[in-house]
Amino acid sequence: MTIETTAAQPAAAPAPAETVTMTYSEAIRDAMRIAMAKDPAVFIMGEDVGTYGGAFGVTGELINEIGPERIRDTTISELGIMGAGVGAAMTGMRPIVEIQFSDFTAQAMDQIANQAAKIHFMLGGAVSVPMVIRAPGGSGTGAAAQHSQSLEAWFVHIPGLKVVMPATADDAKGLLLSAIDDPNPVMVIEHKLLYKTSGEVRTGDIRTPLGVAAVPREGKDLTIIATGVEVSRALEAAEILAADGIEATVVDPRTLKPLDSDTILRTVKATGRVLLVQEAVRTLGFMSEVSAIISESDAFGYLRAPIKRLAGLDIPIPYAPKLERASVPQVEDIVAAATDLVRKW
Amino acid sequence: MNTQIVADRELAAASLATMWKIRRFEEAVEDLYGRGLMHGTMHLSIGQEAVPTGACLALNKDDYITSTHRGHGHCIAKGADMERMMAELLAKETGYCRGRGGSMHIADTETGNLGANGIVAGGIPIATGAALSAKMRGTKQVAVSFHGDGAMGEGAWHEGVVLAAMWQLPVVFLCENNLYGMSMSSEKAFNLDQLSDRAKGYGIPGVTVDGNDVQAVYDATKEAVDRARAGGGPTFIEAKTYRWRGHSKSDKNLYRTRDEIDEWRGKDPIPHFEALALAAGGLTQADIDAVRDNVRTELRSAVQRANAAPDATADDLLSAVYAR
Ligand SMILES: Cc1ncc(C[n+]2csc(CCOP(=O)(O)OP(=O)(O)O)c2C)c(N)n1
Ligand SMILES: [Mg+2]
Q1: Strand-pair category, B180-181 with B206-210
Q2: Of the four listed, A164, A242, B33, B184, which is most buried by Cβ atoms within 10 Å?
Q3: Which of these CATH numbers, 3.40.50.1110, 3.60.15.10, 2.40.30.170, 3.40.50.920, describes A214-344?
Q4: Are strands A42-46 and A71-73 parallel, antiparallel or unpaired?
Q5: pLDDT tens, A62-78?
Q6: Which residues of chain A have a Cβ shorter than 8 Å from any chain B Cβ?
């Protein structure tokens, strides 16, 4: 990535030298390129990650730069790929395993849940599994029920896994580099709708630490806590709310496990109202846990309104575009729920 | 000796019509998608029409099939209604799945189609289960699992075949080897001269046939189905064919050459079949033209009627999750 400077650009407003505009997808690729240049143990393995460039084009042309030894195309064998990742990670390599759609982690679940997550503890700390799993989740592409799920709660529910959900291009890069460093299996749940979105991304070998939430917006009236694609929807909603005189704080946990409860509780105490937004189905979703954490803490005493959740309907994602859209929280749903919360309480 | 399809006027016309229906249906889908009138994703089987056509000719209406993400052909060959299929892809209430499934999830239980599948190899153990059910219920039904070459890398393939072999179930595992699973060549992937070599390791018969030849696919399927119905257990069939189009819309075809695609376009199963039927006397040129024209008319009206149908409704989404 290069920053283009032309004579036509006003000298007063150059992009800060240390960032560059790139897509979420390019930012992930940049992170992988940096990690592979630095550490020969890092390699990528997955279906069609080579010449094809990945099902969503994320590995792109990396195979031309790095070669097929470290950008390894596999057969369609998620369980095998995941297990090969675990075995390689136990013995000195640092695999990045790409699963084409997070739905297909179902095929690989034994290796994720019973092997990768448990080995370090179960074996008394004798070995660790420094592996990264990258998988896109979420709906919005018309791919229907088996290609659109938001399964983060499955992984958060398994002790031994770390789980991150980058919502911006910069976080996609910074969190992935932290995940690669981490001595544990880290599940990185990307979002298909974000791949083509752009943002300012710090250049070079940067980090976004695991376990630290982002607070992209601060306001006094309510705290909106959102994950994944819902972060950008929450920010868009916050703009609309501001025009209506409602000032929202937006919190993006970024890492679901380990969770930055401190930031959540601090912002909730400051506003006294909380709206939790996730794309995943409501029942036993990640935000159910956030709600419980708030309820159990001293922040509870600061609440002026009941905690409100906005979540996907408890249904498989339907194909028809109107139905698909109606299945998960949209900007207007966030605006309506936030307005209700502030006006009623 | 099986019936010579191309020499039998009725069978030849029916087979040719099935291939044209698949081809025209998918061309229409491609066009609608290209013009932004269709949503989601799709996988086209253009070039592979002879496989489902030959295989389904060997099946009874109440025999089962399980299908794949590339399933329009299986669905049509088993007898589905193109209007309801098109309505599904157009997200209409009158579609096979009421607009909830789309291309990758069409099922037509009336013709024994237990469903396309978004999960590679997802249908393989399901076919084993349908065959188990037929056996336990004492019917003479057979199940055919259509699947791709890529599916043979999945654990589900292995486990589905192992159970079927142990219980000697009436199921046929029919691999459409179109030489690639997305970008992975089946030759590179499997270290086998032919995929049917794998059958021996599972203790079942295996055979490889020309998947662009309706008769060859029919003969192999007929033999397998007859054996299955007679209690002789499962069979594996590899039908070698080729996918002309990209895997899906995201495919830039970087993993194969233009020459290779052109070579296989030269082996188009439809004119191949037409030439054989003409030579064998099963069909005249007038018959051939009539089949093609009738399919075109039928498809056009299917698209029109599907388009005019009401959009899928969100009214009872929540109550539709559990069976009552
Ligand atoms: C479990 C699973 N893994 C990966 C995919 C993504 N995917 C869809 S089709 C496909 C290739 C399948 O190849 P093959 O079985 O040969 O069928 P073909 O597409 O050639 O008809 C892949 C990798 C999927 N849908 N399900
Ligand atoms: Mg294939």
Answers
A1: unpaired
A2: A164
A3: 3.40.50.920
A4: parallel
A5: 999 999 999 999 999 99
A6: 47-48, 50-53, 55-57, 73-80, 103-104, 107, 141-147, 313-316, 318-323, 326-327
